[in-house]
Design goal:
Elements: H1 4-16, H2 19-26, H3 30-44, E1 49-52, E2 55-58, H4 60-87, E3 93-98, H5 103-117, E4 122-127, H6 135-138, E5 143-149, E6 160-175, E7 184-185, E8 193-196, H7 202-213, E9 219-223, H8 227-235, E10 240-244, E11 255-261, E12 266-274, H9 281-300, E13 305-306
Parallel strand pairs: 3-4, 3-5, 7-11, 8-9, 8-10
Antiparallel strand pairs: 1-2, 5-12, 6-10, 6-11, 6-12, 6-13
Helix pairs in contact: 1-2, 1-3, 1-4, 2-3, 5-9
């Protein structure tokens, strides 16, 4: 009989690209992972992996086995969810990956509400700029609070359900003493020095694409994912920033925010979970808390809008 733990190791190696990276993800030694994969190879009697440059790739037999493994993992998840549904109670642990720009307005209020409503539930929260959607099928995270920009391709992987939370436009942030009172078009920023996230990030890509679509290549002498650093540069009069509204503390002195006129940039914040036919009470509770926090934030900002599924 195939060992489900070994199947999970095989899937993790493929997702991570190497045995060493998979071992780090699984908190095991590379030798231990290699031994288990060798045992899995003996179980099936055929090679499952082949070298591919500096990484590894599946053989045809490995591809077939991983396809079946996905269905096995789905069945195990369904069984766990069905038992949890019969039990009718929220579990004791869950893991959430969230963007730094969502912590103050959505994540912190949601976790506070969860602690009050479900005191036995402990939610481990990973705050990271890196997209975590691919972690959902691997089971390393239960819920992802992610983002998608309306003019970038949708890269949601197979087997993931997306629950929209909030439509969150980017605002033009300037020093208060340099601000006008009217909305700002992207073309107005052609002569500005911008503080932007790296182009490898979703927000950085969205800003660069929108500027190019508006007919200019922006000047970006300041590159950082740290929104607090961006706002410091803005207050000093060194830069202009394009920042999601949810990430801006309206009480911060020395800055002025303006909507983008004509061709706005906005992101949809969403909660993502592994696809299952039977709802898991624990992840359902986490998603519900995030949705409530997003709705309350939108209610306190009349120009914001919660997005209904």
């Amino acid at each position: 009989m195939l060992d489900i733990r070994r199947l999970h190791m095989l899937k993790t190696v493929v997702a991570r690209g190497s045995i060493a990276a998979a071992a780090q993800s699984l908190a095991l030694s590379a030798g231990a992972v290699s031994q288990q994969l060798s045992a899995l190879r003996r179980d099936v009697g055929v090679d499952l992996l082949r070298p591919d440059g500096r990484t590894v790739a599946l053989t045809e037999a490995g591809r077939v086995l991983v396809e079946h493994a996905d269905r096995i993992f789905d069945a195990v998840q369904e069984a766990e969810n069905a038992v949890a549904a019969v039990r009718g109670t929220v579990g004791t642990t869950a893991s959430l990956a969230a963007l730094p720009s969502t912590v103050a307005r959505i994540v912190a209020p949601a976790l506070t509400a969860l602690a009050s409503r479900h005191p036995r539930l402990t939610v481990a929260c990973l705050v990271t700029d890196q997209a975590q959607l691919r972690e959902l099928p691997l089971g390393t995270v239960d819920v992802v609070l992610g983002q998608r920009y309306h003019h970038l391709p949708d890269v949601t992987p197979r087997g993931v359900d997306v629950h929209p939370l909030l439509d969150d436009p980017l605002l033009v942030v300037t020093a208060a003493d340099r601000a006008g009172e009217r909305p700002v078009s992207l073309r107005d920023l052609a002569t500005h020095s911008l503080a932007v996230p790296p182009p490898t990030t979703d927000c950085g890509q969205a800003i660069l694409r929108a500027c190019h679509d508006a007919g200019f290549t922006p000047s970006t002498p300041y590159v950082t994912t740290d929104i607090a650093a961006q706002l410091t540069l803005v207050r000093a009069g060194l830069a202009t920033a394009l920042v999601p509204r949810t990430a801006i503390d309206p009480t911060v002195p020395g800055i002025h925010t303006s909507p983008i006129e004509g061709t706005p940039i906005h992101r949809v914040l969403f909660a993502a979970t592994r696809h299952t036919d039977t709802a898991d009470p624990t992840t359902t509770a986490v998603v519900a808390a995030l949705r409530t926090a997003a709705h309350r934030h939108a209610s306190s900002h009349p120009t914001a809008a919660t997005v209904r599924p």
